[in-house]
Write a structure and sequence with these properties.
By secondary structure, this protein is α+β, with helices and mostly antiparallel strands. The chain folds into two domains: 50 residues, no CATH class; 341 residues, Cytochrome-c3 Hydrogenase, chain B (Orthogonal Bundle), CATH 1.10.645.10. It has 17 helices and eight strands. It has a three-stranded antiparallel sheet. The chain has a three-stranded antiparallel sheet with strand order 6-7-8. A hairpin with a 2-residue loop joins strand 4 and strand 5. The radius of gyration is 23 Å and the shape is globular. One of its GO terms (molecular function) is quinone binding.
């Protein structure tokens, strides 16, 4: 009854008949299982309300049930377009909490794989966004390059999408022999694909009309909503944890932070394009500098012994058994740590009671905060604008799960 009265009040206030339309949750343009109810005056959106909660993975509760390392596969399902970056984020937070110092080779390996993951995340974001816009050719220029990266990751990790490749204290294993040439080939193909796509859209009048000045957000509003990553940088705010709170030695690399000026869909697209080129610069520098040595810490309190030692040595067998079944013993306390993931700041708040598994892990995914601004951004636009705005924010439903 109250809903009917509210709608009647809205009708009398606007002096028009409104049409109510569901965008999602079961629609390919919703980029996941999320729903936005919009009130429309003709072609224009007058108001919108977003609803999440259609995806029930229970990430935070599930992580409590396993050991510290057993939580890593769950992170693959947060932003599944750049799974390794989520692996690295959780492993880094746990290592910081436990005071584990990873090796130099591991540090470089994580940088290389994280930046490669950033590239494929931006590729799929822009590719899908152009499909929503009707510019299908760009999809093949960008998405095919992503497949080359997946071939490389499959050869390295054994999995294409959900890699689960990091471990607390290191990585599952080192690079394979000849990886440098394979990686350079993949990066070069991505570079060419992006250049081909940019040649189609950078000065395209239709793309400009559809994206310039559309669903713009100011720097002040973006900050107040909790924006981070490319969407914040598109407003002109050059905030990037790799520069502002450097980790893994990112301050030793030569790269720039691309920024926009209007915070509209066009800026969000172009910032992601430019960030791909910056990630390529970092990867090429890291490949030249990566040192030799072990990729994992050699400390039985944190990392599994070599399989050959487990078969031949009773102490190694016992150590292996205790780490698998009881987990790494952690100090009592709590800590927050974050990394610059593809969509922005990915943080983990860890609470430990001193056992071999977390008492609580609270995740701070970038999409969860940006989604709250979406209804505000689409008001005054049309349904077609709302669809490509969602794509330009790169909302990943796995990060909205609670």
């Amino acid at each position: 009854m109250s809903q009917t009265i509210e709608q009647a009040d809205m009708h009398s206030f606007l002096k028009t008949d409104l049409m109510y339309l569901n965008l999602g949750p079961s629609h390919p343009a919703s980029h996941g299982t999320l729903r936005t109810l919009v009130a429309m005056d003709g072609e224009s959106i007058v108001a919108g309300v977003s609803e999440i909660g259609y995806l029930h993975r229970g990430f935070e509760k599930s992580v409590e049930a396993g050991t510290w390392n057993q939580g890593i596969p769950y992170t693959d399902r947060l932003n599944y377009c750049s799974a390794i970056m989520n692996n690295v984020g959780l492993a880094k937070a746990i290592e910081g909490f436990m005071g584990i110092e990873i090796t130099e080779r591991c540090r470089y390996m994580r940088i290389i794989l994280s930046e490669l993951s950033r590239i494929i995340d931006h590729l799929v974001c822009n590719a899908a966004n152009f499909v929503d816009m009707g510019a299908l050719t760009n999809y093949w220029y960008l998405y095919n390059q992503r497949e080359f990266v997946y071939d490389f990751l499959a050869k390295l990790t054994g999995a294409r999408l959900t890699n689960s490749f990091t471990r607390v204290g290191g990585m599952y294993h080192d690079f394979y022999e000849g990886w440098e040439a394979d990686l350079e080939d993949v990066v070069s193909k991505c570079e060419q694909g992006i250049l081909d796509s940019m040649g189609l859209v950078k000065t395209n009048r239709i793309v400009h009309d559809r994206t310039m000045g559309v669903c713009a957000i100011s720097a002040e509003d973006a900050l107040s909503y909790g924006f981070t990553g490319p969407c914040l940088r598109s407003t002109g705010v050059a905030y990037d944890l790799r520069k502002d709170a450097p980790y893994y030695g990112y301050d030793e690399f030569d790269f720039d932070i691309p920024v926009g000026s209007h915070g509209d869909i066009y800026d969000r697209i172009m910032v992601r394009y430019e960030e791909c080129f910056e990630s390529m610069k970092i990867i090429r520098q890291a490949v030249k500098r990566i040192p030799g040595g072990p990729v994992n810490v050699e400390d039985g309190r944190f990392f599994l012994p070599k399989k050959s030692e487990v078969y031949d040595n009773i102490e190694s067998l016992m150590n292996h058994f205790k780490l698998i079944f009881e987990g790494i013993k952690s100090p009592v306390g709590e800590m927050y740590d974050s990394t610059e993931a593809a969509n922005g700041e990915l943080g983990f708040y860890i609470v430990s009671d001193g056992g071999g598994r977390p008492y609580k892990i609270k995740v701070r995914p970038p999409c969860f905060y940006m989604m709250q601004a979406y209804p505000h951004m689409i008001e005054g636009g049309m349904v077609a604008d709302a669809v490509i705005n969602l794509g330009s924010l790169n909302i990943i439903a796995g990060e909205l799960d609670r």
